[in-house]
Design goal:
InterPro entries: D-mannonate_dehydratase-like, DgoD-like, Enolase-like_C_sf, Enolase-like_N, Enolase_C-like, Mandel_Rmase/mucon_lact_enz_CS, Mandelate_racemase_C, Mandelate_racemase_N_dom. It holds the Pfam family MR_MLE_C. By secondary structure, the protein is α/β, with parallel strands linked by helices. The protein has two domains: 3-103, Enolase-like, N-terminal domain (Enolase-like, domain 1, 2-Layer Sandwich), CATH 3.30.390.10; 108-370, Enolase-like C-terminal domain (TIM Barrel, Alpha-Beta Barrel), CATH 3.20.20. Helix content is 38%, strand content 20%. The strands form four sheets. Strands 4, 5, 7, 8, 9, 10, 11, 12, 14 and 15 form a ten-stranded mixed beta sheet that branches. A three-stranded antiparallel beta sheet has the order 1-2-3. A three-stranded mixed beta sheet has the order 6-17-18. The protein starts with a strand and ends with a strand. It binds D-mannonic acid and magnesium ion (MG). The site of D-mannonic acid has 9 residues, from loops.
């Protein structure tokens, strides 16, 4: 089955998404997500100028060989742009293979290991009271796991809080230049333990709680926070420290039993290897899109399972429903699946472009048995929402020092 054409679409249905469509001489096509938040057109150029010309005429069934060809064949391998491009191609090829086989992709991976996918919801607020009120709603909605994020008093725009926005999809589509958000580690470390103490005092220990530090701390600060949060028994503390210095997680491990989650910025299994084989982390967060596709994510899940590390794939608003559904298949199959990040089923304009079926019931997501990934991409609808350049914010300490956002 020959690849005859590969199309790349950029649309802003609530926020920017990059979608790859691979067409074949048998009339079967597949789609993949190539969205890289704030650098979308870099991936488009990598695909159109450097990837697509090499793939026309190749056998769409040769998923592994095409992955190796695009990864090793580039010589300059790895990196966020190239791996988002490869991730989209790989996902689209799995979509094709499932459609040809007449099977959902999870069947091609090895079948279901569970009835449905346990997800964690985002619960955020501008104050502890607002967070607790939203936590009550999330519990009433049946979620068993939630992530708590709260504006740090004295610093507006804290990561994970929406301010006056109605929902995430608006937030990340309308930043023509990087907004600058203030950060104070001292104010953060003084405040966050109170958030989790109040959550446990109010709702007890039945609900599982996690928190995203978003790469803002040094290893010893993260060790301090992990230790302070131990009484509140978090499911995990995410991105405590940026991943470039994996030995920093040894310092954290030496001081606290609070489980660590890391990896939404990983692009390959090699980014995770040291952390996993030394058991410095407990959940790995790599996404199909940023991690190079379903092919490497299956390898990562198998490697992580050797070290009791569980999968907790990234599921932010800047990953398209194609990536979301690719995670559903991996999460249904992976014997070491932990929990899936979930920010809702999106807006009407998003679902007009990306159509898929999934049901949320008691904090778990059920999908229908459709061949392939199970998403339909509406090209005509996508054209209605043209790309709008948009940046992620940058973060600065109160003295102006540039910091991790
Ligand atoms: C966050 C993301 O959901 C998360 O865990 O880290 O929302 C992250 O901020 C975005 O994906 C960045 O584009
Ligand atoms: Mg995160």
């Amino acid at each position: 089955m020959k690849i005859t054409e590969i199309k790349v679409f950029v649309c802003c249905s609530g926020r920017n998404f990059v979608t790859v469509k691979i067409l074949t001489d048998k009339g079967v096509y597949g789609i993949g997500d190539a969205t890289l938040n704030g650098r979308e057109l870099a991936v488009v150029s990598y695909l159109e100028e450097h990837v697509i010309p090499c793939l026309i005429g190749k056998d769409a069934h040769q998923i592994e060989d095409i992955w190796q060809y695009l990864y090793k064949g580039a010589y300059w391998q790895n990196g966020a742009v190239s791996m988002a491009a490869i991730g989209a191609i790989d996902t689209a090829l799995w979509d094709i293979k499932g459609k040809v086989a007449g099977l959902p992709v999870y069947q091609l991976l090895g079948g279901k290991s569970r009835r449905a996918v346990t997800v964690y919801a985002h619960v955020n607020g501008e104050s502890i009271e607002e967070v607790l009120s939203n936590l009550e709603k999330a519990i009433a909605d049946g979620y068993k796991v939630v992530r708590l994020q709260c504006t740090i008093p004295g610093t507006e725009g804290t990561y994970g809080t929406l301010g006056d926005k109605k929902n995430y999809y608006e937030l990340q589509g309308n930043r023509p230049l990087p907004p600058e958000h203030p950060w104070s580690t001292t104010k953060y470390l003084n405040f966050i333990p109170e958030l989790f103490k109040r959550a446990r005092d109010t709702f007890g220990y039945g609900i599982e709680l996690c928190h995203d530090v978003h790469s803002r701390l040094t290893p010893i600060e993260a060790a301090q926070l992990g230790k302070t949060l131990e009484p509140f028994k978090l499911k995990f503390l995410e991105d405590a420290v940026t991943y470039e210095n994996p030995e920093g997680y040894k310092i954290i491990r030496n001081h606290t039993t609070t489980p660590m989650a890391l990896g939404e910025k990983f692009n390959t299994i090699w980014d995770a290897k040291h952390l996993i084989e030394n058991q410095y982390i407990d959940f790995v967060r790599t996404a199909v899109t940023h991690g190079g596709g379903i092919t490497p994510l299956k390898k990562l899940a198998d490697f992580a399972s050797l070290y009791h590390v569980r999968m907790a794939p990234h599921g932010a608003p800047d990953l398209s429903p194609i990536c979301f559904m690719a995670h559903m298949h991996l999460d249904l199959w992976a014997p070491n699946f932990g929990v899936q990040e979930f920010i809702g089923f999106g807006t009407p304009e998003l679902n007009e472009v990306f159509n898929f079926q999934a049901q949320l019931k008691d904090g778990e997501i059920y999908i229908e048995d459709k061949p392939g990934i199970g998403v339909e991409f509406n090209e005509e609808a996508a054209i209605k929402y043209p790309y709008k350049r948009s940046y992620l914010p940058v973060s600065r300490l109160e003295d102006g020092t540039l910091w991790n956002w």
